[in-house]
Amino acid sequence: MAGRGKLIAVIGDEDTVTGFLLGGIGELNKNRKPNFLVVEKDTSITEIEETFKSFLARNDIAIILINQFIAEMIRHAIDAHMESIPAVLEIPSKEHPYDASKDSILRRAKGMFCAEDFR
Amino acid sequence: MGVSEGEESHLLLDEKLLCFMKQLELLEEKRNTLNSLIEQGWFSISKARYSMGNKQVSALQFANKMEPLVSVHVRTLENAKVEFCTERSSQKCSDESTKDPTSVEDIGPLEEGIRRRKTTKSGDKEKRETGGTGSEKAPEVNPVEKRDHNPQQDPLNWFGILVPQSLKQAQSSFKQVIELSAEIAALQILVLIKQRNYLFQRCGPFVQCSDD
C-alpha cells in the first residue's frame, strides 16, 4: 500500500483529472474528501479557491497540480503561498497551452533580473 | 599576481548565477517533456472515448472508493532543499489479485451464506431421532459478510473490464507525468533556493536589491 507517503492533488478539467486518476493518484479519505477537483463550466471561483486552500491546509498532500488557466483565476492565492510543501505545479490544459511567463515560480525566478518584480 | 577580494566575490557570484541558469534550463527541458506527455495522454483519452462512446470515459465512471496507488515521500535535505520520491504500489496490488481470484469479479450478493438443503433420507433419520421437531424449521442461513471491495484496484477497471489499448496508453503516459511532476516540483524549489542564495550573496541579508 502507498502507506505513509504523501499524496498528489489535482485541480483541473475533466480530461486532466481523469488522466491523473488513471495514473493512480486518486484518494477518497475517511471523511470521503477527495484529493481532486474536476472544474466544469459551472464551477465557481470561490469553490476552486476553497478547494485549493483546503489542499494547502492538508498535511498529507505534497504536490498540487493545477491547470494554468484555473491557476490564473486564483492567482492571488497561489502567489501568496510561499512554502515549499505542498509544491504547486502549473500544467497546461487542452484549450490553454502552457505559458511560462504566467507561471508563478518562473515569474519569481525572473524577478532576480528585475528588482521591481522581485518580491 | 593574486586575485583581489572584489574579483573573487564576482567570480563566486558568476558561478552561482551559472548554476542557477543551468537549473532553470533543466527545469524548462523537463517542463517541455511533461507538457508533451500530458498532450499524449489527452490524445489517448480522446481515442478511447471515440471507441468506447462519449460518456464512457468521464468523471461519472470514477469509483466511489479510492486508494492512492502512488505516494510521494518528501525528504528535506540541507540548505532547505526538498526531494520528492514517488512510490508506486501496483506490484503489491497485482500480487493480491493473483492470490485471491475473488477480487477480480465483484458479482453476486453482498452477503454470502451456506444454506442447508432439505434432504429426504437424512431428514427422515433426524425426524426419527428428534421426534419430528427439527424438520419444521426453515432452512438455516449463516450469513457471512463478503470481503470488503478492494478500493486499491486498477483505475482502468472503472471504465470496464475490456478497455481499449488507447486507454492503457493514456494511463502509462500519465504515470510518467506523475513521476516527472515530482522531479519538477523538487527542481522548482531548487531554483528558488539558488535564486535566494545568489541574491543573498549579491546584496547581503538586509540590503535591498534596488540599491545596486
UniProtKB/TrEMBL annotation, chain A:
Going by the UniProt record, its keywords in alphabetical order are: Hydrogen ion transport, Ion transport, Transport
GO process annotations (BP): apical protein localization; Kupffer's vesicle development; notochord cell vacuolation; regulation of cell population proliferation; regulation of cilium assembly; regulation of heart looping; retina development in camera-type eye
Name a GO molecular-function annotation: proton-transporting ATPase activity, rotational mechanism
Question: What InterPro entries does this protein's entry cite?
Answer: ATPase_V1-cplx_f_g_su, ATPase_V1-cplx_fsu_euk, ATPase_V1_fsu_sf
Checking Pfam families in the record gives: ATP-synt_F
GO CC entries: plasma membrane; proton-transporting V-type ATPase, V1 domain
Q: State how it assembles.
A: V-ATPase is a heteromultimeric enzyme made up of two complexes: the ATP-hydrolytic V1 complex and the proton translocation V0 complex.
Q: What does this protein do?
A: Subunit of the V1 complex of vacuolar(H+)-ATPase (V-ATPase), a multisubunit enzyme composed of a peripheral complex (V1) that hydrolyzes ATP and a membrane integral complex (V0) that translocates protons. V-ATPase is responsible for acidifying and maintaining the pH of intracellular compartments and in some cell types, is targeted to the plasma membrane, where it is responsible for acidifying the extracellular environment.
- Family affiliation: Belongs to the V-ATPase F subunit family.
| UniProt-listed NCBIfam families | V_ATP_synt_F
**What name does UniProt use for this protein?**
V-type proton ATPase subunit F
TrEMBL record, chain B:
Q: Which GO terms describe its biological process?
A: vacuolar proton-transporting V-type ATPase complex assembly
Q: Which domain of life does this protein belong to?
A: Eukaryota
Task: Write out the GO cellular component annotations.
Answer: COPI-coated vesicle; endoplasmic reticulum-Golgi intermediate compartment; endosome; lysosome
Basic and acidic residues compositional bias, start-end? 88-99, 121-130, 137-151
The family database entries (Gene3D superfamilies) matched by this protein are listed as:
1.10.287.3240
Where is it mostly found?
cytoplasm
Q: Where is this region: Disordered?
A: 88-155
What is any Pfam family matched here?
Vma22_CCDC115
Task: List, in alphabetical order, the Gene Ontology terms for molecular function in this entry.
Answer: unfolded protein binding
Which UniProt key words apply to this protein?
Answer: Coiled coil, Cytoplasmic vesicle, Endoplasmic reticulum, Endosome, Lysosome
The yes or no answer to whether the keyword Methyltransferase is present is: no
InterPro entries assigned: Vma22/CCDC115
Q: Where in the cell is it found?
A: Cytoplasmic vesicle, COPI-coated vesicle; Endoplasmic reticulum-Golgi intermediate compartment; Endosome; Lysosome
Does the UniProt entry include the keyword Endoplasmic reticulum? yes
Listed under subunit, the entry gives: Accessory component of the multisubunit proton-transporting vacuolar (V)-ATPase protein pump.
The protein's matches in PANTHER family, at most eight in alphabetical order, are given as: COILED-COIL DOMAIN-CONTAINING PROTEIN 115
User: This chain belongs to which protein, by name?
Assistant: Vacuolar ATPase assembly protein VMA22
Q: What is the originating organism of this protein?
A: Fundulus heteroclitus
Print the organism lineage: Eukaryota, Metazoa, Chordata, Craniata, Vertebrata
